[in-house]
Amino acid sequence: MKTPLGIIEGYFGRPWSWTERADLVALLARHGYGFYLYAPKADPFLRRRWDEPYPAEEAAQLRQFARHCRIHGVRFGIGLSPFEVYRDFNAAARQALTEKLAFFDSLGIDDLAILFDDMRGDTPDLAARQLEILDWIRGRSGASRLIVCPTYYSDDPVLDRVFGERPAHYLETLGDALPDSVDLFWTGEEVCSREISAGHLARVESLLKRKPLLWDNYPVNDGPRMSGHLHLRAFTGRNAAIGEHLAGHAINPALQPMLSAIPALTLAASYRQGNGYAYMEAFRKAAREVAGEELAVRLEQDLMALQDIGLDQLGEREERLRRHYGDVDHAVAREIIAWLDGTYRISGEAVQTQ
C-alpha cells in the first residue's frame, strides 16, 4: 500500500509567503505529496488568538490557497491549537470554536487537525477533557478527516520536562476512546527523531489502537539553535518498510521553503525505491531538480558548512558562501543569502510567544 505523504507547515518563526506555499505545493504534488496542513506557529488566529476571526484579507488568501491545493490534487487542511481550552471549555469557548469551525468549512477544508501540543499537560484527567472537546468538534466540522496531536506525541522525556509530567495512561486512554477514523500524530522516539523504525511504530500502533500519522521533524530548523543550520541532506533512518505501520508520513519543513523541497523529494524517492534507495544519489537528483545543475554542485560542496558547521561557526567560510550564492538569481540562492544575513534567526522569546 502506498504511504500518503504530506507537508505540515508547523514551524516556529518567520512565516512563508503565499507564493512560496503555492510554489512548494505545485512542486511536491508532482512527486506524490497528497496533503498539506496549514499550521504555522506564527499565525495567531490558529494559536494564541484562536478565538478571534480571521481578518478579511488573510481569510481571502487562505481561501485562494485552498483552491490552489485542490487544483493540484492535494488535500488541504488546517491545524488549530485552541490554546489550553481544555482547562475551561465554557460557553464562550464553545461559541468561538463553533465560529472558527464554520469558517474552516467555508474554505472547503479536507482535513482538520486539533493540536494539543506545546501546552501544559500535567492534569490527571487530561485525556478525558480533550476527548470531550474532540467529540464536540466531530459533530460540528465538515472535514472528512480529523487528526489529533496529543500533548505528549513522543516517548521523548523532554516533553515531560517542558510541559509537566504526562498523566498515567494518557495515550492509551485517547487510543481506546477515539474512533478508528481519527488519526493521531506521532513524532517517533524523540521530538526530532534520528531514526524511525518499524519495531518502534508497531509498539506505538498497539498503544494507540491505530497506525500513527507520522509528524516527521526533519528538515525543520526552527528554534534558537536549529535556525543556525540548513537541513538539506536526504532523508535517512526511515526505511520504506515503516510505511506498513503508518497512516501517513508528513514532514515539518524548514524555514526556507525551496530548500525544504530538496529533502522532501528524497523522502518520496525513498518510498518509491525501497531497498534501492541511496541517500546521496537521491540528494543530487533532488538538488538538480530544485536548484539546477550548477547550484546543485555548489550545494553538495557546501553541505558540511550549511548543515553541520552552521551560521555561528562559519568564520571565513561565510565569504565563500556569499560568492557562491550572492550573484545567483534563484530562490535557493536567495534563501541561503537571507540565512547568512540572519533573516531566519529565531529567538527563545519567539518560541515562547508564538
Per-chain topology:
Layout: E1 5-9, H1 18-29, E2 33-38, H2 56-71, E3 75-80, H3 91-107, E4 111-115, H4 126-138, E5 145-149, H5 158-163, H6 170-177, E6 183-186, H7 198-208, E7 213-216, E8 248-251, H8 257-273, H9 279-291, H10 293-301, H11 303-309, H12 317-325, H13 331-340, H14 348-353
Parallel strand pairs: 1-2, 1-8, 2-3, 3-4, 4-5, 5-6, 6-7, 7-8
Helix pairs in contact: 1-2, 1-8, 4-6, 8-9, 9-10, 12-13
Give a short overview.
The chain is an alpha/beta fold. It has helices spanning 18-29, 56-71, 91-107, 126-138, 158-163, 170-177, 198-208, 257-273, 279-291, 293-301, 303-309, 317-325, 331-340, 348-353; strands at 5-9, 33-38, 75-80, 111-115, 145-149, 183-186, 213-216, 248-251.
CATH homolog superfamily: Glycosidases
Look at the helices and sheets and give the structural class: alpha/beta
Spatial sequence of strands, sheet with the most strands: 1-2-3-4-5-6-7-8
Largest sheet: 8 strands, parallel, barrel
Which CATH first-tier class would you pick? Alpha Beta
CATH architecture: Alpha-Beta Barrel
Portion in strands: 5-15%
Number of domains: 1
Helix coverage percent of residues? 40-55%
In angstroms, what separates the terminal alpha carbons?
A: 38 Å
CATH topology: TIM Barrel
Helix count from the secondary structure assignment: 14
Sum up the overall morphology in one term: globular
The oligomeric status of these chains comes to single chain
The radius of gyration is 20 Å
Uncertain spans, ≥5 residues at pLDDT below 50? none
Number of strands: 8
